[in-house]
Amino acid sequence: MIEIIPIDTESLGDRSYIAHDGTVAVVVDPQRDIDRVLALTEPRGLQITHVCETHIHNDYVTGGFQLAQRVGAQYCVNADDPVSYERVPVRDGDVIETGDMRVRVIHTPGHTFTHLSFAITDAAGAPAGVFTGGSLLFGSTGRPDLLGFEHADTLARHQWNSAHRLASELPEQTGVFPTHGFGSFCSATQAEGLSSTIGAEKTANPVLRQSEDDYVTELLAGLVAYPAYYAHMGPANAAGPGDIDLSAPQTADPAELRRRIDAGEWVVDLRSRTAFAAGHLPRSFSFGLDGSFVTYLGWIIPWGTPVTLLGETEDDVALAQREMVRIGIDRPAAMATGKPEDWAGGEPLATFPVVSYDDVASARADGLHPYLIDLRRDDERREGYIVDTQHLPLHQLLSRMDEVPDDRQVWLHCAAGFRASVAASILAANGRDVVLVDGDFYPKAITAGLEMAAEERVDA
User: Fold this and answer.
1) Rounded average pLDDT over 135-152
2) 275-292 as b/e, with b when 16 or more CB fall inside 10 Å?
3) DSSP code for 401
4) 20 to 30 Å CA-CA from 243: which of 86, 183, 234, 341?
5) How far apart are CA 293 and CA 324, in angstroms?
6) Is residue 457's pLDDT more than 80?
């Protein structure tokens, strides 16, 4: 019997998989911290014979190259992918045999031109599942624009055909095991559910229910912005990523922290946004581990800028460090743990106020009318927004800093408070007087009595 073990990377919205027959294992799309894979295979006595990549990933640095080298497995990558390392080149129709497992290679372009899926059966031919990477997701598909929007229409049409090929060639009871779709920006839309089958996708997935033209039109119209660090992932994966070092960085004292800040390096505070607002090292940045830490750090930071991590504990720093290596930020410059008073070396801490949407409504009712910036993405803004606000998506903040007033207090909001805290810390470090609006935008902003507008009005 074949067992499939998923390995979730919730921070990036991805899954890796181990398929095994009790003796040998095939690993699909492993993340860079391969110790998580080995922690599952070694106690079970499994020999990893093959590591398979569905595609050259755009949203994370793969661990496939290192895992295959570490355990002596065959590294199966599309023969047409222009990689700079030796691999086992596989093509559509190839069959990988290992133990009681048979893995058929299926070319499923759409997310990329060379994208593959891997359909696995037991020795008798009974289906165990299909690893679909960024092709057929739960109720969705992978997005087709990551190689440049000039290719998006062509790839979207490939995606439609690939999904229909999987649906026509595989039994309906075949389990579907995608890499993306759990929060990853590689998904065209966010998937729903914890598991699926080919039969379930035939019933629920728009790609299998719409005509090709309708699917392509709807898909392209719904694409949203994706993180800037994606531009660096493909080249890193094609080059063959090196091993990682997760040992603790050097410890920085207050003088060293100040020197790094003065040099323009990023000193990143991992505590919650409310703790940061209550007191933080001046000109440090808020990227709490309780939010989308690595997605937005990688999205916003000028690539290659040294990062120093500030955490309450060494475990906090270790978690952040693990998240960072997954997107190719390999080594923090330094770290410090404890409390902000420990990091400031006797110097005053910086603070800024935290308010609620009720406070925003009260201030407007009292005629104060604070200057309010909406940091959500364009697609979120279209669904509904507070009238008389400036729209400045967080990922554009550094390039549009001159649009933020420097002669009045600025109130900042997003969908839940994480992005607003990031923006508040960046703006405060650049001399702005800021206020963090904390809390969920829906329904609190509506029930607070704030006047709303939307292209399609959102009801409370």
Assistant:
1) 96
2) bbbeebbbbbbbbbbebb
3) G
4) 183
5) 9
6) no
Asked if residues 332 and 256 have their Cβ atoms less than 8 Å apart, the reply is no
| Global pTM value | 0.94
β partners of residue 9:
14
What backbone torsions phi and psi does residue 105 show, to the nearest 5 degrees? -90, 125
DSSP string, 282-312: TT-EE--TTSSHHHHHHHHSPTT--EEEEES
User: Is residue 247 helix, strand or coil?
Assistant: coil
Cα–Cα distance measured from residue 442 to residue 326, given in angstroms and rounded to the nearest whole number: 31
User: What token pair was written down for 301?
Assistant: 């930071």
Token pair 């933080």: residue? 280
Q: Are 55 and 114 in contact (CB under 8 A)?
A: yes
3-state secondary structure 203-240: HHCHHHCCCHHHHHHHHHHCCCCCCCCHHHHHHHHHHC
Enumerate residues 6+ apart whose C-beta is below 8 A from 366: none
Amino acid, single-letter form, for residue 402: D
**Structure confidence at residue 364 as a pLDDT band (50, 70, 90):** very high
3-state secondary structure of 370: coil
Distinct helix (H) and strand (E) counts, the chain: 15, 22
Please list, in sequence order, all residues whose beta carbon lies within 8 angstroms of the beta carbon of residue 102, skipping any fewer than 6 positions away.
95, 96, 120, 121, 122, 123, 125
Q: E-strand spans in 321-365? A: 334-337, 354-355
Q: Which domains does the chain have, with CATH numbers?
A: 3-239 (3.60.15.10), 254-344 (3.40.250.10), 354-453 (3.40.250.10)
Residue 304, number of CB atoms within 10 A of its CB = 7
The SS3 assignment for 262 reads: helix
